[in-house]
Specification:
Layout lengths: L2 E2 L5 E2 L3 H11 L4 H14 L15 H13 L5 E5 L7 H13 L3 E5 L3 H7 L3 E5 L2 E6 L1 H8 L5
Parallel strand pairs: 3-4
Antiparallel strand pairs: 1-2, 5-6
Amino acid sequence: MVFQDSDEQLFMPTVLEDVAFGPLNLGLTPEEATARAKKALEQAGIASALHKSPYHLSAGEKRRVAIAGVLAMSPEILVLDEPTTFLDPPGQRELLTLLRQLPQAKIVVTHDMQFASAIASRAVFFEKGRIIANGSVDELVRQFNWKTG
């Protein structure tokens, strides 16, 4: 999102403004939304990027900011679709550590069996919109003879 001020100068929102967007739309005051955004950024381990533009962050940092944006909304459940995409191995480890620390229930859609095994206690395999199997990730890997790694 690019904004224009009265002097016709363009400026981009900061990470803090981006994360506060959701709480503002919930009807929180700007002060409440900012406080929630700061807390969520700390929780996601990206508070140091508070005043940066989201466009100048790495893929891993952007992922953390996105998670902070969701956390600022105080969800009970996190739904993540292919969360390790475009992350290098250190970024994947950091994401795993972060997700393990969060108290919310998590639904993770992924083809990354190593990540799934590390984060999930239960797996469900869908085919053409139907549940084909469920159990531990390791059980499903064995049952369907999937290759990992």
